[in-house]
Write a structure and sequence with these properties.
alpha+beta, four-stranded antiparallel beta sheet, 10 strands
Length: 370
């Protein structure tokens, strides 16, 4: 592995965190998230515009020459931490990370690619890869879409995240990668476990798109984007786990039984102390993954696999403890704990299960597979 990782947050990263957290505290409270989730249309376009365009988070991975911020994966990881803390229903992971990374992997020589990157960086458009949310790095890519002639695309892709919010879909076909206007596709909403990250089945019937790359280039770009997405998803999971820990500690300090705070009982102290250690370890793993991606470290695939294998489980455990230690109130629909548990469980399947990443760790480190 690399000789050293820089796990500390820079002053710039902390300023970015403060800006994003302040916005979410004002415009994305748990009650607001729950209210929008109940409507079946969780995305908040105004919140996304402020986050993406006014704060400039959508262009963090995009070079300045294309209108982006020219930052990197460490800064994007900070944004995702805060989005995880708020279970924010915005298409950041899909558009500002996965789709942007795919386009960057194609190179910026093509005018079509450069224009689309500029639109994404400015927050004027949302782009979603037409890939299942469960698509894992290192796994075979689907080949369900075919070019029936003249760029007319036909096929069906299931479990596409944030397709309902997208203006453009990136579609992998047998003849290459295409940018397809979302209006050209038929979307069938699915009932997701995580109400804040909607899924849909995308059906194309002779849809017209702009060809961006040949099949080999497209598959290489998608593979790189999936790696980055999995590494940065770990930061979202850390933010989620941190919120669950913080809220649980606050609750058990204020909740009394037998005339003493629930949190004063030794059994609960031990559980929360262990959870704190888990979250601290997950933060280190996620920061290492973000730093490896930012620096282009040769062992980035191993570091990302370690982060995903660990952080997914920590997020689920933290959310489960949050629900259980809140007692009866944690089981109610009105309390936001269930939103965090559902995001954690759905996130543990996104971009590869922990088992898949454990197998990757074993492969990269040349260890016996579990």
């Amino acid at each position: 592995m690399s000789d050293a990782f820089d796990l500390l947050y820079s002053e710039t990263e902390e300023e970015l965190r403060s800006a994003v957290r302040a916005l979410l505290a004002d415009r994305c409270t748990p009650a607001q998230v729950l209210a929008r989730a109940e409507t079946g249309r969780p995305h908040d376009p105004e919140l996304w515009h402020t986050l993406a365009a006014e704060i400039g988070t959508a262009g963090l991975l995009v070079p300045e020459k294309l209108g982006g911020q020219g930052a990197g994966h460490r800064e994007a990881a900070v944004v995702l931490e805060e989005l995880g803390r708020a279970v924010a229903p915005v298409p950041y992971l899909t558009s500002a990370v996965l789709a942007t990374e795919i386009l960057l992997g194609l190179g910026c020589d093509s005018p079509e690619v450069a224009l689309l990157l500029a639109e994404l960086a400015a927050g004027r458009q949302v782009c979603a890869p037409a890939l299942p949310l469960t698509q894992a790095p290192g796994a075979p890519l689907p080949g369900a879409v075919r070019d029936t002639g003249g760029g007319a695309l036909t096929g069906t892709v299931g479990s596409v995240a944030d397709a309902a919010a997208a203006d453009v879909l990136l579609v992998l076909a047998d003849t290459g990668l295409y940018a397809v206007p979302a209006a050209e596709a038929a979307l069938s909403p699915l009932v997701p476990l995580d109400l804040t990250r909607p899924l849909a089945t995308v059906t194309l019937e002779g849809a017209a798109g702009t060809r961006l790359a040949d099949p080999a280039t497209a598959r290489a770009a998608i593979a790189g984007a999936l790696l980055s997405g999995a590494g940065l998803l770990a930061s979202e999971q850390v933010g989620l786990a941190e919120w669950c820990l913080t809220e649980t500690v606050r609750h058990v300090r204020g909740r009394h039984q037998f005339n003493r705070p629930v949190g004063s009982f030794q059994a609960l102290k031990h559980r929360l102390a262990q959870l704190w250690l888990d979250v601290a370890s997950a933060r280190a793993a996620a920061r290492a993954a973000a730093d490896a991606l930012a620096t282009g470290a040769p062992d980035a695939p191993l570091t990302v696999a370690v982060a995903q294998a660990y952080c997914s489980g920590v997020a689920v455990r933290a959310a489960e403890e949050c629900v259980q230690l809140h007692g009866g109130i944690g089981m109610t629909w009105e309390h936001p704990a269930h939103l965090y548990l559902k995001r954690a469980k759905a996130g543990s399947l996104a971009l590869g299960t922990p088992g898949h990443h454990h197998a990757l760790v074993a492969d990269f480190a040349e260890l016996p597979s579990p």
